[in-house]
Specification:
Blueprint: E1 9-14, H1 20-23, H2 26-34, E2 38-43, H3 45-54, E3 59-62, H4 77-105, E4 109-113, E5 124-128, H5 144-155, E6 160-163, E7 186-188, E8 207-212, H6 219-234, E9 238-241, E10 252-254, E11 257-260, H7 265-273, E12 275-280, H8 284-292, E13 298-299, H9 306-318, E14 322-323
Parallel strand pairs: 1-2, 1-4, 2-3, 4-5, 5-6, 6-7, 8-9, 8-12, 9-11, 12-13, 13-14
Antiparallel strand pairs: 10-11
Length: 335
């Protein structure tokens, strides 16, 4: 997957925009540790809490990234401009900060998941991304060539650009990774899931519905609330994973719905495999996890996230998923 001798000190830095960037580096980190590398994680608090459950003995450094909040009603030109400005400023800031981290921790290799500023001349580095093409909302499609140029410009500064997907057969990303011309340092590394190698044995259906909640606020909370209402409206036994690894409280029951902040990877895999129906966001890491466990789901794209809207439609057409807009979620029926 990554060409290392086994003596390297590797700094892993996932983006803090949801937990998907952290879950998909888990199999890569496990592979590096198996080869004898020293792995250090520099990430947001929520990412650290998640990765610490899987790798309790690693060194973790608080290294905040992008904090984004979506409006309840899509994205306006002002929202888009604000996000673009935040990304640009963060990239410059992180490029300065990475020099300090590399020196202090004697880093040989930087592994960055969607953090464009984390490369350094003289140090090997890899950018993990599943978006070589950034999709803009309909009124802003004229910006798409600029977005593609932006990704290419930054990705080419890394030693490698790693795509967690298959190049040809069974490609989950579709046109997200099909720019007019792939640049020289791009390499497809196959689907990356935290559930790879986990042995799940399910003898019976435990849940009528499993809801997997993820993404930035306030949409994360809105989605959670809608799933609770749906469970009780339909009178079906449901488990709702809140996607909050930092929360310490235990499960709570709201009518027919059982809400849990977080579970171990094995327990999540068991829940996915033992649920009759699954409803979740169409975030790419969630999709990779489901495909790894041979499950599909009803996908509910985060409003305003064109990448998720595209993936939901693409996966429905080609891979047996279904999708519904969030505004129509309350109208569905589940047996």
């Amino acid at each position: 997957m990554i060409n290392v001798s086994g003596n390297e000190r590797i700094l892993v830095c996932p983006l803090g925009w949801g937990l998907g960037h952290s879950t998909r580096v888990i199999p890569i980190m496990a592979s590096l540790l198996a080869k004898g590398c020293t792995v250090i994680v520099a990430a947001d608090k929520s990412s650290i809490e998640l990765l610490r459950t899987r790798f309790p003995n690693l060194q973790f450094i608080l290294f905040p990234s992008l904090s984004v909040k979506f409006k309840k009603r899509g994205i306006t030109i002002l929202n888009l401009a604000r996000i673009a400005k935040s990304v640009a400023l963060l990239t410059v800031k992180e490029h300065s900060q990475i020099k300090i981290l590399v020196k202090e921790h004697r880093i040989d290799f930087i592994l960055s998941d969607n953090r464009y500023g984390l490369w350094l001349k003289g140090t090997r580095s890899a950018l993990i991304t599943h978006q070589l093409t950034i999709l803009f909302p309909r009124p802003f499609k004229w910006l798409q060539p600029i977005g593609q140029w932006y990704v290419r410009w930054h990705a080419q500064k890394f030693t490698e650009c790693l795509i967690p997907d298959n190049l040809e057969d069974f490609s989950l990303t579709g046109k997200l990774t099909e720019p007019a011309k792939l640049f020289n340092n791009v390499r497809f590394i196959g689907i990356q899931s935290r559930f790879a190698g986990i042995d799940v044995e399910v003898s019976e259906v435990r849940w009528d519905m499993l809801g997997i909640v993820s993404g930035p606020e306030p949409q994360r909370q809105i989605f959670e609330n809608m799933l609770v209402v749906l469970s009780n409206k339909l009178g079906i036994k449901s488990l709702i994973l809140q996607g909050l690894p930092a929360r310490q409280h235990s499960a709570r029951v709201v009518g027919k719905a059982t809400l849990v902040p977080h579970l171990s990877d094995l327990d999540i895999a068991n829940a996915i495999c033992s649920a009759r129906n699954i409803i979740c966001r169409s975030g790419y890491s969630t999709v990779m996890d489901l495909v790894t466990l041979n499950r599909t789901a009803l996908l509910v794209p985060t409003p305003g996230q064109t990448e998720q809207e595209y993936l939901a439609s693409y996966l429905t057409q080609h891979f047996g998923f279904n999708y519904v807009k969030q505004s129509k979620l309350s109208e569905i029926t589940i047996s």
